[in-house]
């Protein structure tokens, strides 16, 4: 994945999001597989899971799903919203509005990635905060408490700590990593997905 991004004068205040379109699929696939399956950046899972993170078909399904909102941070010629997009995606995050058995709705946050060159510069914080604000407003409009959930891999204490600093807590729900080949091949047998939850007041 190209990394010709000038970060010398990078300003996280210039980060902006728009909803993903089907035209973004190629760039999204490249970003997600780079961030999760290669060794660049601190968020990768390369030592825990092999194979690909996502496919064009999965991304198309997410983008086309009415209750699934997928946001991207596109690279532009000027580095801000006013520039022309180059076709590269620098960050992304999805908000999936789910309904549980009791007809309560909550927002599931997933497919979160930041280009490795921009990691550690506050970009992820800006993107996550924007997704949380969107989810909170959406759930409040439905007269539902704003419960945000996400799943992270076990054996990633640094990632758990990152989300705990942002108000997420492990809620006790966990499941074995799905070994169906659709999300990569686990490199160890004891991998689990831990569910984190945050209530926005």
UniProtKB/TrEMBL annotation:
<dbReference type="InterPro" id="IPR000182">
    <property type="entry name" value="GNAT_dom"/>
</dbReference>
<dbReference type="InterPro" id="IPR016181">
    <property type="entry name" value="Acyl_CoA_acyltransferase"/>
</dbReference>
<protein>
    <submittedName>
        <fullName>Acetyltransferase</fullName>
    </submittedName>
</protein>
<dbReference type="Pfam" id="PF00583">
    <property type="entry name" value="Acetyltransf_1"/>
</dbReference>
<keyword id="KW-0808">Transferase</keyword>
<dbReference type="GO" id="GO:0016747">
    <property type="term" value="F:acyltransferase activity, transferring groups other than amino-acyl groups"/>
</dbReference>
<feature type="domain" description="N-acetyltransferase">
    <location>
        <begin position="15"/>
        <end position="192"/>
    </location>
</feature>
């Amino acid at each position: 994945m190209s990394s010709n991004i000038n970060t010398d004068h990078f300003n996280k205040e210039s980060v902006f999001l728009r909803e993903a379109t089907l035209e973004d699929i190629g760039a999204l696939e490249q970003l997600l597989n780079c961030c999760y399956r290669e060794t660049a950046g601190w968020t990768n899972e390369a030592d825990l899971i092999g194979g690909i993170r996502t496919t064009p078909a999965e991304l198309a399904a997410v983008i086309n799903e009415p209750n699934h909102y997928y946001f991207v941070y596109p690279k532009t010629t000027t580095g801000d919203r006013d520039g022309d997009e180059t076709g590269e995606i620098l960050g992304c995050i999805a908000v999936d509005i789910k309904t549980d058995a009791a007809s309560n709705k909550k927002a599931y946050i997933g497919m979160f990635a930041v280009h490795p060159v921009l990691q550690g510069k506050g970009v992820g914080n800006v993107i996550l905060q924007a997704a949380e604000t969107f989810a909170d407003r959406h759930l409040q409009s439905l007269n539902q408490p704003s419960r945000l959930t996400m799943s992270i891999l076990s054996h990633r204490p640094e990632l758990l700590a990152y989300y705990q600093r942002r108000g997420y807590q492990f809620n006790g729900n966990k499941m074995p990593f799905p070994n169906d080949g659709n999300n990569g091949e686990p490199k160890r047998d004891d991998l689990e997905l831990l569910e984190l939850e945050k209530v926005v007041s």
